[in-house]
Amino acid sequence: MLFSLSSLACLFLAANAVSGNIIIPAKKRYGELSGKFIHVTDFHLDPYYVEGTDVAHFCHTSKGDTKKGVAGRFGTLGSKCDSPTTLVEAAFDFMSAQAPDADFVIYTGDSVRHDRDKKLKRTKAQVLEIQRTIVNYFQKSFDKVIPVLGNNDVMKHNHIQDYDQQYNEFKATWEPYNLALGDDFEQGGFYVQEIIPKLRTINTNTLSFTKKNKLISDCDVPGSPGRNQLDWLKKSLDDTRADGSKAYILAHIPPNSKKDKHFFRDKCYNEYYSILGSYSDVIVGHFSGHFNYDQLTAVLQNKEDGTYTRVAALGAEEVPMTAEELEIYKVVGVLFNAPSIIPEHNPAIRIYTYETEGYRYPVGTILDWDQYYANLEEANQSGNLEFKLEYKASTLYNVDHFDASGIQTVFEAISLNEEIRQQYSNIRKVIGNEEAAYL
């Protein structure tokens, strides 16, 4: 069932750091907690990107075909080109300078360039080398990095099965991260990582769920990769609950797209959201990337029959609901989708603050986040790329914590306040507004 913002109004009424040219070592001392972590996603590093080449040829070569423009120094906004090394290094410079004391970094995947250029097809060696390059960048600056697999990180875009040899290759590439990559990872590319006392990440492989993976069946098929992973996910959450701990779910591909359509196969999609709802007492955040948008999605529970559904803050279309229907739903969870480094929109990096002690809110509760962006057109003109604050979530939404009750307030604000709704529409695409009142 789909819901629109306007139709949810009744429900919710009830209730500057400058990048330099050198990566700065910024490793924090072990044992200290700052209550901050970084979320970065979708680097799509392209070592073959050449400034001044034709956008029509993926910023690789010049053939005089400039109708779509030419490649900028730090990237080419809204094009099919991937990220140049200059942009990726500027992003790491910024993270090192802005959050040297971050407790950890969550990286929701896609290190590798797309395989769009038919005259420069990716090779296995290139894919592995780009992955190692991103690992090296992280290792220069941060002690604790928790990655998940992206759909472009595998050799054949979107396609992988259980027990694929590539999982062993990822395990070797990620060895510097010192992760708990055991049998589950070798089987299906998923794992659990303890990060601080009473908080862990449950790191999924969403290639086992996506419709675009033609090698797999839906999650109602016994023994399928999706079925195996959902069983593992429930067991991991049961273990977390039994331990009295909390969990972040990390995913590359979110269940629903920027147009609020299903990314996952139908059975996988429905059960995935049912799990998110059923374990909402354990899950304190769900983080993803993939489609380059800044998007919030609320998990909803039907008060009458206990079933779960969802609503994205701005869907593709409005589906009117009666006030009576709206009254039976409550918010129980939230999915945070972060904008990307690859410049489909302006490059972006997010820094969260979270509860570390569990005094006011459960450990892991998101208290706030600062969303940073770089104005790519300005950077290409000036030759200097700066990440600036786009918005502070607590200021934009007037909320001091982002659990279910806080997200209810957020959706109420987006639903009922036209100005906030327009601001949210702008930040979804990382337009940037340095004069805005929500900094």
From TrEMBL:
Cellular component GO terms held in the UniProt record: extracellular space; fungal-type vacuole
GO BP annotation list: polyphosphate catabolic process
Domain Sphingomyelin phosphodiesterase C-terminal: 345-405
One Pfam family hit: ASMase_C
Signal peptide: 1-20
Gene3D superfamilies registered for this protein in UniProt: 3.60.21.10
Alphabetic keyword roster: Glycoprotein, Hydrolase, Signal
Top-rank lineage group of the source organism: Eukaryota
Residues spanning the membrane: none
Molecular function in Gene Ontology: endopolyphosphatase activity; exopolyphosphatase activity; phosphoric diester hydrolase activity
Name of the protein described by the UniProt record: Sphingomyelin phosphodiesterase C-terminal domain-containing protein
Species annotation: Mucor saturninus
